[in-house]
Amino acid sequence: MSWTTVADLLGLVALLAGAFLCFAAGVGLVRFPDLLTRMHAGTKPQVLGVLLVLIGVWLRTRSGMDGLVLLLVGIFQLLTIPAGAHMVGRAGFRTGQVRPADIHPGRRERTGAGEAEPGR
């Protein structure tokens, strides 16, 4: 078995695993009930899925310049996906879709109503 065959097989496995993770992220965005769980489903598997797809493409192309471009795309994805999720979470908190008790479960037990204590 030659190196090209091994690289092609590893690239295929990485592409399929990445595609599955991206698909799972899409299903989670549709199926999960609230903003925080949808945000989790949209970011956690998506980052790894995109990186696996990029690695799979690089293993299939085996070109230095293509690898550099794919590396830049991967770095850009690693920087923007968490930043986008942070902006969505802040917007959800500011518009009232996320309550403080959802973020800090300990507040629910202290106040009893799930609202933040006055003065905090």
Automatic annotation (TrEMBL):
Transmembrane segments: 12-33, 45-61, 67-89
Alphabetized GO MF terms: sodium:proton antiporter activity
Bias kind Basic and acidic residues: ranges: 101-120
Region (Disordered) location: 97-120
Transmembrane is among the record's keywords: yes
Keywords, comma-separated and alphabetical: Membrane, Transmembrane, Transmembrane helix
Signal peptide, first to last residue: none
Top-level taxon: Bacteria
Similarity section: Belongs to the CPA3 antiporters (TC 2.A.63) subunit G family.
Protein name: Na+/H+ antiporter subunit G
Native organism: Ornithinimicrobium avium
Taxonomic lineage from the root: Bacteria, Bacillati, Actinomycetota, Actinomycetes, Micrococcales
